[in-house]
Specification:
Number of domains: 1
Strand order of the largest sheet: 1-2-3-4-10
Largest sheet: 5 strands, mixed
Radius of gyration: 18 Å
CATH class: Mainly Beta
Order of helices and strands: EEEEHHEEEEEHE
Distance between the termini: 46 Å
Length: about 180
């Protein structure tokens, strides 16, 4: 798996080769590697335990349908639509905490092409958009390199030190002083 995340204050590259997860905070000149042996479900749980939020990780779960459909109160098929020139079915869903939309490629490979999550109970309803642009399966996966080129000057840190890989920077402490 290879993921690039940009936006807000995030500029990261993430790769998982089946045994090691590498997270390169390009904006921080730092990277972390963690043992990723086990299933993708195990890896996602370990990341969550480390405080690394991964919007869209539910699409990688072995129980994706159960996770996505839990708490759904409303579902609608909107229409056929195109994502990067690929015909998709556009579906929307509501839950008490968030709304989500998904565009699924039509035809023999029903691949999610876009996934949008909107948090309803957070100020200004932040939205995450996940675009899947180069999906591979079967033999194509084995023939692909998932290694990230880490610059020589990048420092190795613990994953918990990469707090700045999120969309927003950490809040500045209020010292009570007026400047």
């Amino acid at each position: 798996m290879r993921v690039t995340r940009t936006g807000g204050f995030a500029d990261i590259d993430v790769s998982f080769d089946g045994s090691t997860l590498t997270v390169h905070g390009k904006n921080l000149d730092a990277y972390a590697k963690i043992d990723g042996k086990g299933s993708l479900d195990d890896l996602i749980d370990r990341l969550a335990d480390a405080g690394a939020e991964a919007p869209g990780a539910d699409l990688l779960s072995s129980h994706v349908y159960d996770i996505l459909m839990s708490d759904v109160t409303e579902a609608k098929h909107i229409s056929s639509a195109f994502v990067d020139g690929v015909e998709c079915e556009y579906l929307t869903f509501r839950t008490p905490e968030l709304d989500w939309q998904i565009w699924i490629q039509t035809g023999s490979q029903p691949i999610p092409r876009r996934y949008v999550i909107t948090s309803k109970h957070v100020v200004q309803a932040p939205q995450y958009t996940l675009e899947i642009s180069d999906f591979k399966s079967g033999a194509e996966v084995a023939a692909t390199s998932y290694n990230i080129e880490i610059p020589a000057n990048a420092k190795t840190v613990d994953l918990s030190e990469l707090q700045s890989i999120d969309e927003l920077p950490a809040p500045v402490a209020d010292t009570g002083e007026m400047k």
